[in-house]
Amino acid sequence: MTDPNNILHFLNKSTDFLKKKGIPSARTDAEWILADLLRLTRIQLYAKFEMPLSSKEIEEYRERIVDRSKSKPVAYIIGKKGFHQFDFFVNESVLIPRPETEELVELIRLRYEKEDKPLQLWDLGTGSGCIGLSLAKLFPHFFVTLTDISEESLNVAKKNAENLQVNDRCNFILSDLANKLSSEVKFDLILSNPPYIPLEEKEDIMKDVVAYEPHQALFIENIFEFHKQIFQSFADHLIPTGVFAIETHPKFIHKLADLASTFSLGDIEIIKDSSSKDRFIIGKSMI
């Protein structure tokens, strides 16, 4: 008896294969990968378990599953990641957007949802653009400057701005922190999710993260010296009483909050994420 040639058969085979390779969430990953290949939602996939696959679809699905078996993240395999209310194109030039960063966007959304005046936002170290572009999409009166040290990352962010149809309110600058910004440029709001994992923690990070995601966006040699530069950039480019918010390492966040207060930044709050970890520092310019 020949094997069935349908969706359910290949999902089951792929799930078993990924489990043997030690891949967590093997079934979920197999479903996401196949749903994307067939341009279906996962719910639609369940309703079409008996649908046969073409030889081309089978071959491409096998290739994707082999990639996942080598720990390549699903987001890089399918080329996108859901973030907040939107889908973002991603490749190995950018960090895959995280749930914690969604919480930063939601925090800002709630704080600004009743304001309708034009606002200048700087997304420092933008990567895929998920922070600044989500807020540009949510708030039509936000004008966003997105900077990154990586030209490849900026190209990804530009593509996402076009996909979200907000590129007319976005300015992209290749810059290491603020070094390409004029001293006269000021912002109402500065947000950042910079690299904040110390190099010595690299061995504790998941294999798929270390093997595939850009280390420049993850790891930092000296977290305090690096954040000094970040806080100086905030102080230099915020309008009086302008607001900043940054995602950072729970282990160091209290010392970093104290450090921020030495750069004419005040009203500082430390806010927990949904896992009850101290994750975000929010404050404003005191100049």
Short synopsis of the structure:
Methylates the class 1 translation termination release factors RF1/PrfA and RF2/PrfB on the glutamine residue of the universally conserved GGQ motif. By secondary structure, this protein is α/β, with parallel strands linked by helices.
Chart the SSEs and their pairings.
Blueprint: H1 7-20, H2 26-38, H3 42-47, H4 55-69, H5 74-78, E1 80-83, E2 86-89, H6 99-112, E3 119-124, H7 130-138, E4 142-148, H8 151-164, E5 170-174, E6 187-192, E7 197-198, H9 207-212, E8 219-220, H10 223-237, E9 238-247, H11 253-260, E10 265-272, E11 278-285
Parallel strand pairs: 3-4, 3-6, 4-5, 6-9, 7-8
Antiparallel strand pairs: 1-2, 9-11, 10-11
Give an overview in words.
The longest helix is centred in the first third of the chain and has 15 residues, at 55-69. The protein is of the alpha/beta class. It folds into two domains: 7-70; 92-285, Rossmann fold (3-Layer(aba) Sandwich). A seven-stranded mixed beta sheet has the order 5-4-3-6-9-11-10, with helices on both faces. The chain has a two-stranded antiparallel ribbon with strand order 1-2. The model has no long low-confidence stretch (mean pLDDT 95). Helix 1 (7-20) crosses helix 2. It is built from eleven helices and eleven strands. The chain is elongated and about 70 Å long.
The CATH class of the largest domain is Alpha Beta
For the record, give the distance between the C-alpha atoms at the N and C termini, rounded to a whole number.
78 Å
DSSP summary, beta strand count: 11
Spatial order of strands in the largest sheet: 5-4-3-6-9-11-10
Instruction: Please report the number of helical segments.
Output: 11
Main beta sheet strand tally, sense and closure: 7 strands, mixed
Per CATH, what is the topology of the largest domain? Rossmann fold
What helical percentage do the residues reach?
A: 40-55%
Dominant shape: elongated
Radius of gyration, whole Å = 21 Å
The CATH homologous superfamily name of the largest domain equals Vaccinia Virus protein VP39
Count of separate structural domains: 2
